[in-house]
Amino acid sequence: MIPEFEKFKGFKAKSIPKDEPLASGHRACQGCGEVLALRMVMKALGRDVIVCSATGCMEIISSPYPHTAWRVPWIHIAFENAAAVASGVESARKVLKRKGKIPKRHVDIMAVGGDGATGDIGLQWISGAFERGHDFLYVCLDNEAYMNTGVQRSGCTPYGAMTTTSPPGKKSFGQVTWKKNIPAIAVAHNIPYVATASPAYFLDLMNKVKKAALVKGPAYVHIYSPCPTGWGSAGERSIEFAKLAVETRVFPLYEVIEGRYIMSRKITKPKPVTEYLKGQKRFRHLDEGHIDYIQKRVDVEYEKLLRLAELT
Amino acid sequence: MAKRVGIEVSIAIAEAAKLARSEVIPAYPITPQTHIVEHLSEFVASGELDAEFIPVESEHAAMSCCCGSSAAGARTFTSSSSQGLSLMSEILYIPSTMRLPIVMVVANRALSAPISIWNDHQDIMVQRDIGWIQTFAENGQEAFDLTLHAFRVAEDRRVSLPMIVNIDGFTLSHVIEPIEILSQEEVDGYLPPFKPRYKLDPKKPITMGPVGIPEVYTEAKMAHSEAIKASKRVIIKAWQEFADMFGRQYNPVETYRCEDADVMLVTMGSISETAMTAVDKMREAGQQVGLVRIRLWRPFPSQEFRRAAGKAKVLAVIDRCLPPGAVCGPVGAELRSLFYKVPGSPKIFSFVAGLGGRDVTVERFEEIVDKARAYAKKRPRELFEVIGVREK
Predict the structure, then answer these.
(1) Angle at CA B251, nearest 5°, toward B250 and B257?
(2) pLDDT at residue B1, as a whole number
(3) What phi and psi values does residue A108 have, to the nearest 5 degrees?
(4) What residues in A contact B204, CB-CB < 8 Å?
(5) What's the per-residue H, E or C state across chain A?
(6) B203 Cβ neighbours under 8 A, 6+ residues apart
(7) Are B106 and B85 a contacting pair, CB within 8 Å?
(8) Are B159 and B199 in contact (CB under 8 A)?
(9) The model scores a pTM over 0.90
(10) Is residue B383 a contact partner of residue B330, using CB atoms and an 8 Å limit?
(11) How far from B371 is each of A95, B149, B248, CA to CA, in Å?
């Protein structure tokens, strides 16, 4: 097991840090599940962190000069390269510590990006940084499309979802591909820690982020992030949808510690996927056949995960 | 004391980056730059250089790592060429406006297609407006000296800009030349440790690379533009100090036998040395020919160039870049702008030569001078001409 985890007792509802490294007053949409998740991420990390942000919603809502929501050092260079920027920061701090130019104190380094920055355009940079073994955590805030540019499909857009570049029509039913499994790609790099998390399970989310920061070497946390604007869902229902995604097995919560899959929450009596799909405009055009397919595929994917957890 | 040794120019550049005590070196292999980073990697492996060598997965990642490393306060060096430089292109504009003093040596090489590993200046001309300070080296000694100079200038707090030293691929990168390698004490005396004004530090959190709304974008770009213009003084002063300490003088623009010359060749990089031989030959034959070499390409040394070449009747500019469909080659166009409507200014013709490793020989320079003279009498249809094209 990971020795760094031994001393970490986990966050409790009563002991959640009051400090807000990500200040309020930023420009996120009402009901944004992504910024809520990011707030929890930052609460878990505290102030001893350097954040390398990809271009995306979280970057633009938090940093319109001369304002900033960041109370920690933060850098944004471009869309696809947050993991490489973090590699540079980590290497710089390593050599500067060795030379006695900065204090030896440990500072976490986090790269953060959306699903497009992570699973599509930035996959190579993340793969490179994981393979080289930099000591950093990568957090993907997955709202399942390119929301910042106005809701275009990404590799992480779920099957059937309507976006502006996967519109349903006479000859299409929306997104035709199944959601790309980025956590599995992270696991394939043999990094010590991979996890999925949801803002509906905030203690679980914060604990996973903290573990990702504690572990030596690269770590990856994939966070489900409801987007009322892009999904056509009610802003006040974001956390409800986050919860339903887990309860319907659409977005299972698990950890992969040194290759061992551990289910964070076993869903023994899953709700039907329709409960999750209804209430989101992006799915409302789907007919029974498509919903049937989604239900079957969700079950198959979940079974695969359970088997991985048994095997490892 | 400095020692003069026979050494490959790439190794000499690696020595310079080592003597500069580079701290982070993100690098990706590409011919003809690779020898530079190979040797740096060896220095790190042997412990001769206390640095982090990051063997990245692409040039884009190399430049991205450079941004992170420089922002975190480490002295940062990398090197690239051609397709690799083009792959970096998206990122290159960013550290310059963000004022991150990265130093990069570019071993200039042609761009595809057709794929060519050989030398010309097309790769760097694509990157003309990235807002980095850019110099061109003529020989191995200069490549070594300019690399040290680049750290000194880039990191100067009055400048805080990234800097590129251009060296011609193969014709410089792969040749062995006698080069005076300075000692560690000498370099330490010239180059103080990097002390960034701002860095990523949890004790003093700052936001770097924020969104520039329309109300601030122009000002941010203007500040960058003013900074690179103002850097010229520091660049020249740092060369002056280099000369005072080590006896080798560099200037933004150099002239060779320009006194009373009616035709002046204009060159950048290693072909300047062949051009000097050509000028000697033409002078012996009684021609009034001189040579102007541009060492500082960005910021463009307008005053110095006007002073050096303003009295010529004809400038024959060698462009080592063919811009398809353009009015003129990039260096030719720069100089035409510089002298536009200046009374008594020289007539300017651009000659595209030395593409993709094609040698520019003494005879070619003679041909260029002859043509420039003829065009001065009877204006040519095009403002640039490709020299040395094979008929068959």
Answers:
(1) 100
(2) 55
(3) -75, 145
(4) 73
(5) CCHHHCCCCCCCHHHCCCCCCECCCCCCCCCCHHHHHHHHHHHHHCCCEEEEECCCHHHHHHCECCCCCECCCEEECCCCCHHHHHHHHHHHHHHHHHCCCCCCCCCEEEEEEEHHHHHHCCHHHHHHHHHHCCCCEEEEEECCCECCCCCECCCCCCCCCCECCECEECCEECCCCCCCCHHHHHHCCCCCEEEEECCCCHHHHHHHHHHHHHCCCCEEEEEECCCHHHHCCCHHHHHHHHHHHHHCCCCCCEEEECCEEEECCCCCCCCCHHHHHCCCHHHCCCCHHHHHHHHHHHHHHHHHHHHHHHHC
(6) none
(7) yes
(8) no
(9) yes
(10) no
(11) 56, 37, 35
A65/B213 touch (CB, cutoff 8 Å), yes or no: yes
User: Measured between CB atoms, does B44 come within 8 Å of chain A?
Assistant: no
Contacts B216 to A, Cβ<8 Å: 65-66
Q: Which residues contact B211 (CB under 8 A, 6 or more apart)?
A: A59, A60, A63, A64, A65
Q: Mutate which of A51, A87, A132 to test chain B, going by most B C-beta atoms within 10 A?
A: A87
Cα A308 to chain center, whole Å? 21
Residue of B nearest to A61 (CA): B211
Please give the average pLDDT of every successive group of 10 residues along chain B, which has 392 residues.
88 98 98 98 98 98 98 98 98 98 98 98 98 98 98 98 98 98 98 97 98 97 98 98 98 97 98 98 98 98 97 97 94 97 95 97 98 94 91 84
Residues A269 and A246: their CA atoms lie apart, in Å, by 11
CA distance B135 to chain A (A): 25
Could you tell me if A179 and A157 are in contact, meaning their C-beta atoms sit under 8 angstroms apart?
Answer: yes
Phi-psi sector, A31: left (phi>0), alpha (psi -120 to 50), beta: left
Which residue from A50, A84, A90 is facing B202, i.e. has the nearest CB? A50
**Domains in chain B, CATH or no CATH each:** 3-246 (3.40.50.970), 253-386 (3.40.50.920)
Nearest CB to B23: which of A92, A107, A131? Answer: A92
* Ramachandran quadrant class, B160 (left: phi over 0; alpha: psi -120 to 50; beta: rest): left
Interface contact flag, A92 B69, Cβ < 8 Å: yes
Domains, chain A, with CATH or none: 19-311 (3.40.50.970)
Residues of A in contact with B89 (CB under 8 A): none
Structure confidence at residue A137 (pLDDT) = 98
Per-residue burial over A14-47, b if 16 or more Cβ lie within 10 Å, else e, is: eeeeeeebbeeebebbebbbbbbbbbbbbbbbee
How big is chain A, counted in residues? 312
B185: exposed, middle or buried (C-beta count within 10 Å: 0-12, 13-18, 19+)?
exposed
CB contact under 8 A, B70 and A49: no
Amino acid (one-letter) located at B189: G
Residue A133 confidence (pLDDT)? 98
Q: In chain A, which residues have pLDDT < 70?
A: none
* Spatial distance between the Cα atoms of B65 and B95, rounded to a whole number of angstroms: 11
* CB-based contact B136:B166 (threshold 8 Å): yes
Of B57, B70, B209, the CB nearest to A127: B57
Give the span between the Cα atoms of A168 and B122, in whole angstroms: 46
Secondary structure of residue B10 in the 3-state scheme:
helix
Q: How far is B111 from chain A (nearest CA, A)?
A: 23
Give the nearest chain A residue to B100 (CA atoms): A77
**Distance separating alpha carbons of residues B271 and B293, to the nearest angstrom:** 10
